[in-house]
Structures are given as structure tokens and as C-alpha cells.
Amino acid sequence: MKRLALLLIISSSIFIISFTHFEETKAVKSESIAVVELFTSQGCSSCPAADEVLSKIAGNDNVFALSYHVSYWNYLGWKDPYSSEEFTKRQRKYGNHFKLNTIYTPQMVVNGKYEFVGSYESKLNNALNKIELDPISISISDLKMHSGKLTFSYSLDKQPTNLLLNAAIVERHVENYVPRGENHGKTLNHDNVVRNLKTINADDSGSLSLELPEFTSDEKLLILYLQVEKSLEVMGATKTTI
């Protein structure tokens, strides 16, 4: 009888642990969406852990993961090949929005509402679990690649008011060896790396053209997402392969 009781206690404990783990790591509600922006750099020794956190959610259908490589680490012995001053400016905009004393890496921003250290997976899960959004639907059509450019048309199912449309060309997975800097000697992996970004005032429909970068892999995405111009809150997103 004592042995049976012990087995029941152990089984119950395993069930409780498994259930709790499921609750902590579940993604956003199926009817909602979340845009997760990670500001990172190959020159930052704290960033690979955050890159791994982003990779865990990069394949989720209703999560739009974006890895923005900033430029301000480039002077420390290694220039991040995916970095851009434009992405640094984007992060500064968030820094002003959240009233931060300084920008930093790794930083995650979820739906323009929550920001935290990007390697804190528990904070990411908490933010995802808070998301309740009836998103504006975005449709993509006439997608073409020619003469070094990506062109497409978009349409929204609601009339936009003071909204920005972000169009990001994303490389699904990249990998490279880092010979210098804080991560010297490491081979780093990144998912959903933003290679080009264009932000415009959103209309109910329109067309866009973006310069195509030199890709290092075959898997590429176009991710579109809407943000309120002043609050930066995300209002909708969609993605498609290119």
C-alpha cells in the first residue's frame, strides 16, 4: 500500500510539473497575433542566448519573429554582416517610446507594448500570454522578384487611421563563423534575420518595391505588420514566402 501511495504521489508530481511547463510556454491565443522584434548583434556576447529564444518561436503561425541586427557594436573588432544603421535608428525610436536611458542588446519588443532583455524567455512567454488583439487583416498579391527588386501589392480589411506599414524582407536562417570581437571563435545561428525594411504610411491598399539583398540561404520571407504611428502598438501582421 505504501509503495502504491508513493507511485501515486510521483505520478501526480510529474503531471503537475508537465502541466505547469505547458502553461509557461504556450504561445499567443490562436485568434490573436504577436510581433516579436529582437535587437541583437554578433558583436555582443550576451546576444546568442537571445537569438536562441527567438528561434524557439520563429516558426509559430501566429507569431511574427524579427531579428534586427544593430550597428553600434561594429567598432569592437567585428562588423556584423547583417547589421544596419536603420535598425539602430528603429531601436532608438523604441528607446524614446519606452523612456529608456539608453538602448541595449539584446532587447525584445512585443507588439510595441512590452520591452525586456531578450534572453529572458519567461518574460517573453508572459508577454505572449497577455496578447489579446483582434488584428487588422492584411492581404498580399502580385508578388514578384525582378531586376534586384521585390514588388507586391497589399490591401487591408479595415480603413487605417494613423497607421504605419512595415515591410520586412527576412532571411529564414543564417549561419556564419565569427573570427573577432566578443563572440570570436563561435559559429552563430540566427532565424528570421531582417535584411531590408521599408516603413510607409498605411493606406487601405497600395503597392511597394524593396531592394533585394544578397541572400546566403534559400528560405526567405516577406513580413508585413501594422503599427499605430504614435503608440507603436501592433495592429496586424501577415507573412509569405518569397
UniProtKB/TrEMBL annotation:
Pfam families in the record: DUF1223 (PF06764)
Keywords attached to this entry: Signal
Signal peptide interval: 1-22
Protein known as: DUF1223 domain-containing protein
The UniProt record lists the keyword Repeat: no
